Amino acid sequence: MSRKADSSVAEKSAPGLSARLIDKFDAFLATKTLKLTSQRREIIEKILAMPRHFTADDLVDSFVGQRPRVSKATIYRTLGLLHEAAVLEEHNFGEAHKLYEITEGREHHDHLSCTRCHKIIEFFSEEMEAMQDRIAAKLGFHPTHHSQKIYGLCRECWRETQTKA
Ligand SMILES: [Zn+2]
Ligand SMILES: [Zn+2]
Questions:
Q1: Cα–ligand 1 centroid distance for 150 (angstroms)
Q2: What is the reported pTM?
């Protein structure tokens, strides 16, 4: 049932995605009387080149050595704004492991999270989606969104823990 077995590596961005994200972010910033500065635009371009699921520190690292300098504070603040603007989704995989992901133009999916190497594996299950809807309906609940996370060991980590025993 999994559409994507392992898609932790970024695919080529769909054409026009960058422009779409920038327009969306620009419209959001306007509501806050903020401007789409060249630094904010640059941060979006960097994000588009990131692996599909990335941490704030991964993004900060991608700016290392770059001139003019983009401060860590600006990167963190912009990530927060991008999340607020719904350009990015924020996933909490345990306390110190927050990941960001561009969801624009992507279909809904859920995640498996390896607690050893932090690999993220995406999956989609029609069956599971339908089951969640049934559970909610039975409880008179009207779901707006959900995020399924399954924690454990990926195939490689599982194998390593078995052979080292
Ligand atoms: Zn692993
Ligand atoms: Zn994902």
A1: 13
A2: 0.79
